[in-house]
Write a structure and sequence with these properties.
By secondary structure, the protein is mainly α. 78% of the residues lie in helices and 4% in strands. The chain has helices at 3-21, 25-48, 62-81, 88-112; strands at 50-51, 57-58. The protein has a two-stranded antiparallel ribbon. Strand 1 (50-51) and strand 2 (57-58) form a beta hairpin. The protein is flat.
Length: 113
């Protein structure tokens, strides 16, 4: 994965957290929680797919897939269990934030070519 993508997503997450902190601080903590777990998910995704010598891609197996799904569901579960600390909508926004930034960067680079 491109490190610039992680940096941009982290900056956007911090800005969104600062903005929402003044309205409801639980949303800000949910955004941070969701973004952290989204980073972990994409790290696992990046390490799970290997390119073999013949050019084929090995996918890492069902166990790694289940681990990635648990990592995506964990911030939402934690937000449901601790609503006084984390907001579930904030956690969902944090999980989706990385994907939105990734699409924006991808379409921007595609438009430059």
């Amino acid at each position: 994965m491109n490190k610039d993508l992680f940096i941009i997503s982290g900056i956007v997450s911090i800005i969104a957290s600062i903005i929402t902190f003044f309205f409801k601080w639980q949303i800000a903590t949910g955004i941070i929680l969701g973004t952290i777990f989204s980073f972990v998910y994409f790290y696992l995704l990046n390490t799970g797919f290997k390119i073999n010598d013949d050019g084929s891609i090995s996918k890492g197996g069902a166990l790694l897939f289940m681990l990635r799904m648990i990592v995506l569901a964990l911030p939402l579960f934690v937000s449901c269990m601790l609503p006084e600390v984390f907001n579930i909508f904030g956690a969902f926004a944090g999980v989706m934030l990385f994907r939105i930034v990734m699409m924006i960067v991808y379409f921007k680079k595609k438009g430059e070519n």
